[in-house]
């Protein structure tokens, strides 16, 4: 029985995309990743300036396509993009036109080129779907502003009275908006025309070639039938499409096999902050950020919690959960732990060797810091002299090992030692086990690699061969790790 959700049973088997189990994702905030120079005539900030809610850096999809060699060098084989559709905001959650990629990003032509280039490399592309709300510039809402009660689209939204006040905060808005933000009028998804419109958008881009949808605040469309039909239509076009929801809490309702394949796994994020950042957590920073208050954990508490997280949902769902250390909605992990690079590297080791699908937030791999929104959405620093080479090298070693080692992708998770600040666990698979030792302490420590099949293993981090006898304590440096995979 699952202690976290005692009514949960494993009788039903959700069908989730196999390719996601083998994926390493890279999340890109398009305005801040790479500027191609092909989109001209724009009033832009200098690249690398302090991010602003209302200003643009001018990153575009042509720029992303030009950096695919770099992205692929990270061991990444899937990209998740924050919204790319036409919008009057740098984050593009204010959608104007769901059928047009923002001209500032290069338009539909740039997305076509990017998808083709990515697919030629065996890489997948997942888009952000913002279906709970649109924007004041969305045509149908604009019609309400122009025509008032006579608008043909009056019932597309939740109107409480007239006139509407989309910009005057001194007046009641008179329409429902996401968290009261007048810039984001909420769709009336009880309206058949709205439902048909949103489902058609989902189908259109899957036919175009995208490999799935990340769904923004999907719990706020509080209607299982909407998401059941969404899934049916998307999977009818591409059965391998990945549907991942932004659900921060308990997601059982959406993960029964009839709605989403997975969710963004913030149940993974918070314990990683708590254990690896225990010495340096910036509590005020986290309290201002999406993750909220995080209290330090020792190894035993962390091991118990992360074991529970592997048991929260059906195993086929757990294997495709999107495991992230941070995102565009939170402070970057590095900043949340007070700038402690060792904490971030330890967390990255855990992320790349844990059950589920790791997702790197662009720039984390080179040590890019950032506080709560908008600071976490900084421009990618393309000056390699500013990069943290130790973190970058470690990331590449870990992703390569993950791709080469079935146990790291598909093995079961078993903690064998958790005491103080030391953790040892195995990923067991029929092809052989991988063994991971983490020393989050400030002194070197001997960790017990016990109860394993004797033999020779390779330490992914140092490249050295290690012989295990089945009862072998090994020295792991302070704030360091050992990742042992079977010799080929």
From TrEMBL:
Keywords: Glycosidase, Hydrolase. The keyword Coiled coil does not apply. It comes from the Bacteria. Residues 27-402 form the Glycosyl hydrolase family 13 catalytic domain. The keyword Disulfide bond does not apply. It holds the Pfam family Alpha-amylase. PANTHER family: ALPHA-AMYLASE FAMILY MEMBER, MALTODEXTRIN GLUCOSIDASE. This is Alpha-amylase. It comes from Deinococcus sedimenti. The lineage of its organism: Bacteria, Thermotogati, Deinococcota, Deinococci, Deinococcales.
